[in-house]
Amino acid sequence: MMFAMKRYKVEGMATNKPSKNLPWAGKTVQPDKVEQELMSLWHLAADNMRISQNMNVRTSVLNFVICALGIESARQASTLLRDIPNTHIARVTLVILDTNSASPAEVRTWITLRSFHIISDVMRHPFEQVTVTLSGDAVYSAANIIQSLIKPDLPVYIWWVDDLPQDISIFRRLISSSSRIIVDSNDFTSSPEERIQMLSTTIQDIPNSALSDLNWGRITPWRELIAQFFDVADYRPYLVNVDFIEIEYAVAPPTGGDPNQMVIFPNPIRALLLAAWLQTRLGWQQSDDDLPSTHDAQTGTYSWHMTKRQASSAISRPLIASQSGDLAIGIKESIDITIRPRVQAELHPGNICLVRLTSETNNTPAVFTLDRYDDDDHVTPSVQIPGSNRPQGTVDISATHKENIMLNDELEIMGRDYLYEQTLHEVFSLLKQ
Hints:
By secondary structure, the chain is an alpha/beta fold. The protein has 2 domains: 2-178, no CATH class; 218-407 and 418-432, Dihydrodipicolinate Reductase, domain 2, CATH 3.30.360. The chain has 13 helices and 18 strands. The chain has helices spanning 2-12, 34-46, 49-52, 71-80, 142-149, 168-176, 192-205, 214-218, 220-229, 269-282, 317-320, 403-411, 418-432; strands spanning 27-29, 62-68, 89-98, 106-120, 123-135, 156-160, 180-183, 210-213, 244-251, 284-285, 293-296, 301-306, 308-309, 335-343, 352-361, 364-371, 378-384, 395-396. The strands form 3 sheets. It has an 8-stranded mixed beta sheet, with helices on both faces. It is elongated, with a radius of gyration of 25 Å.
C-alpha cells in the first residue's frame, strides 16, 4: 500500500497542485500528511470555545466512505451530509474516481472539519472529512488508498452515489474492503437490467460485505400497504388466490411530443424489486416448462407466466395461520406478472405509479389497487369486491423522497438485509428467463 502511495506521488503529485479547484473540500494536503494536518485542525478548533465545550460528546462508531464518478455528484453528496441525523460517523472519506483511461495516474487530497447540528450552533458533533481524487491507473488502487485514510478498528460503510462503473472490478475491489455498501439503483441510467444482475452476482461472490439499495427503501411503503390489505379479516382468503399482478412505473414523456416515439432508458428497477418481493411472498415459483415471458429492456416492459405456488409462503405466515385448510381451494393454475411503463410527466422516472392484484375466492372476484395518479407524495388504496367496496383514502409517502433520511436509516443498520438480498437474487433469476 505504501508502495502504491509513493508511486502515485512521484507520477502524479508534483503533484498536489489543485488543477481541480474544490473550495468546499477544505485544505489541500499531501496524502501522507493527512493525519498530521487533521491533528493541526483539531488543535485549532479546540481554541474555539463553542466547539471545545462539546467536542468529546461525539461517539464515533463507523467510517463513512462516499464514492463518486464526478465532482458535481461528489459535491452534492457532501452537501447532503449536513442533513443526516446520524452523529456516529468518525470520518467521512469522499473519493472522486476519474475512470477515463487516458487520464494520468494522480492522487490529490483535501481535508476539513465539519459538524452535525444537534440542538443549536452551540451543540454540534464534529467529524473529519477527507476528499480524495483518483485518476488513471490510480483508481485501481482505490481500496488500498482508502484503507490508509480511514480510522482503524471501525467498520467501513461505502456509499456509491453514481451508476456503476463500466469496469466492475473497481466496484468489486471496494466492496471487498467494506462492511456495508450502499447503492442507489435509481442512478443506474445505462442498462439497469445488467447493473442489477451485476449486483446480485457480486454480492454472492463477496459474502462478507452487506449490500443495501436506497430504491429498496423507496418501495417499503408500497410493500407495507400491500400487506395491510390482508390485515382485514374479510380479505385474507383472497391472499393466496392472487393470480395476476400488474405494476406500472413512471417514465418521462417522449421527446418531440410524438406519442408513438419510444421512451429511452427507462429505469424499471423499483418495479422489478416489488414484483420479485411479491413473487417470493406469495410463494410463486418459476415453472420448469418453457412458458412465454417478455423482457423488452428498450421499452421497459416485462411479463412472466408461472404455474407453481407454495400457498403457505404467502406474504406473512401470521396472515394465514388462523385460516382453514380450505383457504387455497380453487387456486388458479395460471399466474402472471406484468410490468409496464406509464408516461407520467409529474413523477420522477422510475417511481411506481400503480400496483394491482387480482384474485378470486368462492367465485367472487376482488381487485386490490394502489394508484399514485399525478401526486408524487400520496398513494390511493382501493378494494373492489362485488357488494363490498372499501372506501378510498390517501396515504402520505413523501418521506420516501428524502434521501438524507433513507441514507441515515442505512447507516443505522449493522447486519445484513436478507430479505433485500433474497429479492435481488430473485430479480436476477426472473431476468434470466
